[in-house]
Write a structure and sequence with these properties.
The complex is a heterodimer of chains A (115) and B (114). By secondary structure, chain A is an all-beta fold. Chain A has strands at 4-5, 10-14, 19-25, 32-38, 45-51, 56-59, 62-67, 72-77, 86-93, 104-105, 109-114. In chain A, the strands form 2 sheets. In chain A, strands 2, 4, 5, 9, 10 and 11 form a 6-stranded mixed sheet that branches. In chain A, strands 1-3-8-7-6 form a 5-stranded antiparallel sheet, with no helix packed on it. In chain A, strand 7 (62-67) and strand 8 (72-77) form a beta hairpin. Chain A is globular, with a radius of gyration of 14 Å. Chain B is mostly beta strands and 114 residues long. Chain B has no helices and 11 strands. Chain B has strands spanning 5-7, 10-13, 19-24, 31-37, 44-50, 53-57, 65-68, 75-79, 88-95, 104-105, 109-113. In chain B, a hairpin with an 8-residue loop joins strand 9 (88-95) and strand 10. The chains are: A mainly beta (115), B mainly beta (114). Chain A binds chain B through residues 4, 6, 31-32, 34, 36, 41-46, 49, 89, 91, 93-95, 98-108, and chain B through 4, 31, 33, 35, 40-45, 48, 50, 55-56, 91, 93, 95, 98-108.
C-alpha cells in the first residue's frame, strides 16, 4: 500500500512564479515530514522538514504547509528558478516505536521551471 | 566532510551472480540506512543500522540480501543469486542523531542485472 502519495507526476511553471507540490499520506502514525530534491545521477538532497506539531515551516524560498486533519502537505517554492528543476520527493516518518526514523517516500513529482 | 559515498556507482551483472555494494557514511553518523529505488518510484526502505547493530529489516529484504556494518563505520549490502527484478538504484543514507530527522543520502549504486 502506498502510504505517501504524490498524485502529480509532473509540474511545469514559469521562472519567477510559485511552484506548489502536493503530498498526501494515509498513516496517522506519521508525525514528521520531509521534502527532498533529486537531480539525475545524484542522491536525494534534504530541503525542508516539518513536525506534526506545526502547520508551517519556512526556509528562504521554500515553505512547507501541513494539514493534519486532511493528511496533506505541500511545498511552496517562491520565486521558482530554473535551477529548481528536479524531482521532488515527499517523505514521512513515525517517531518512536520501532520505526527508527525510517522514511516512507512518495513517488516523486518532476518539476520543470522554464526561463 | 565529504558526504556519504557509495561504491561502485554502477554495476552490471549477469543473473545468478553475487554482488556487493559499499557505503561510507558521514563520519560520526551512527545511523545508517539502505533504500532501493526503482524507475518512477520513490526510495523504499530496506534496512537500518545503529552503529554496528542491524535493528530493522524490511520485508523487501529477501533471504538473498544481507547487510553488515562491522565496527559501526562503513556498511556493505550483498545480493546473492541476483535476479532481473533486483535491477534498481541502491541508496545509502546516514543520520547523526536518533529520531525522525533528516537523512543524508549518497549518490547511489545503479545495479543492472542482465
Amino acid at each position: 500500500d502506498q502510504q505517501v502519495k504524490q498524485n502529480s507526476p509532473s509540474l511545469s511553471v514559469q521562472e519567477g512564479r510559485i511552484s506548489i507540490l502536493n503530498c498526501d499520506y494515509t498513516n496517522s502514525m506519521f508525525d514528521y515530514f520531509l521534502w527532498y530534491k533529486k537531480y539525475p545521477a545524484e542522491g536525494p538532497t534534504f530541503l525542508i522538514s516539518i513536525s506534526s506539531i506545526k502547520d508551517k515551516n519556512e526556509d528562504g524560498r521554500f515553505t512547507v504547509f501541513l494539514n493534519k486533519s486532511a493528511k496533506h502537505l505541500s511545498l511552496h517554492i517562491v520565486p521558482s528558478q530554473p535551477g529548481d528543476s528536479a524531482v521532488y520527493f515527499c517523505a514521512a516518518s513515525a517517531d518512536g516505536g520501532t520505526s527508527y526514523g525510517k522514511l516512507t517516500f512518495g513517488q516523486g513529482t518532476i518539476l520543470t521551471v522554464h526561463p | 566532510d565529504t558526504g556519504v559515498s557509495q561504491d561502485p556507482r554502477h554495476k552490471i551483472t549477469k543473473r545468478g551472480q553475487n554482488v556487493t555494494f559499499r557505503c561510507d557514511p558521514i563520519s560520526e553518523h551512527n545511523r545508517l540506512y539502505w533504500y532501493r529505488q526503482t524507475l518512477g518510484q520513490g526510495p523504499e526502505f530496506l534496512t537500518y543500522f545503529q552503529n554496528e547493530a542491524q535493528l530493522e529489516k524490511s520485508r523487501l529484504l529477501s533471504d538473498r540480501f544481507s547487510a553488515e556494518r562491522p565496527k559501526g563505520s562503513f556498511s556493505t549490502l550483498e545480493i546473492q543469486r541476483t535476479e532481473q527484478g533486483d535491477s534498481a538504484m541502491y541508496l545509502c543514507a546516514s543520520s547523526p542523531r536518533p529520531g525522525p530527522y533528516e537523512q543524508y543520502f549518497g549518490p547511489g549504486t545503479r545495479l543492472t542485472v542482465t
